[in-house]
Amino acid sequence: MPLLYYWRGDNHRRDLDEGVAYHLNHRNPLLHSAQNGDSLWAFTRAEGGAYSLAAQLVVSGRTHNPKDHHYGPYRLWGHLNHSRYFQVGAHNDVEPIIRMLSARTKARHLGQSFQGMASVRALTTQDHQLLTKFANALPLEPRAALLPELPLEHHLYLDDEEQLEAWLNTRHSGIAPTRRRWLIGAVTRNRKLAPQLQNLYCGRCQICEWSPKDLHDVYACEGHHIQWLSRSGSDALENMALLCPNHHRLIHKLDGHFDFQERAFVLSNDQRLKVQLDHHLPSGGTHG
Ligand SMILES: [Zn+2]
Ligand SMILES: [Zn+2]
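Above: query sequence and zinc ion SMILES. Below: predicted holo structure tokens.
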């Protein structure tokens, strides 16, 4: 089922500045009724006052957030190649289209109809077609360019700010300046976190328990960022998992997301990779 979401203007602008997330959190369980391949259409209010279409997330997965997550227990992930972020502004007034959709909105100020739980609505196939037609004429938002996650993590482990900065400068000019500075700072933070994570698990993979430290006296497992750094994830310990290189590659190849309720990585083919060792990840569960 396609969905419509009203994205508060300040949250939308922050998302663009801090690294486009390609996912949405909410406390309305309706979010999880969207299946893989369905679209979630997000509209927002531009600073000038007009309503604009902001994004089309083509769903690639659903997970549960850590308990008491600020934005609610449900998360919907957008497919990295098929989802689109649009430039918000003067040539993108979506209000007449939103008022034509089956989710009738009579309020004088459109945003008033989309508060709280009601900021997520179900759409019909016809609504989806109407939005698709409108969206096809819109320019894309340049700040929504994604960094490739594996090379980004690789540069982090090289422990070298200059190399990371050179890599960011050569090929990834679309990254917002705030996010660029934050990413370069991540090298210093990672220097402390990586050994902490290795110590917590004696170097073992949290999924298969492969133990290179016991077998060969080396640390060969890798710190993975559960919410990818390229999708505005943080470099805090609770956003990291220790994985063997095989499981790490698999999770990146199949766009795996950790479900805090199931305690497993959910892959884009809907398979699960259960976490066996778990001493530090926040507990899951719905709230309120
Ligand atoms: Zn493993
Ligand atoms: Zn990773």
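The CA atoms of residues 73 and 217 lie 40 Å apart.
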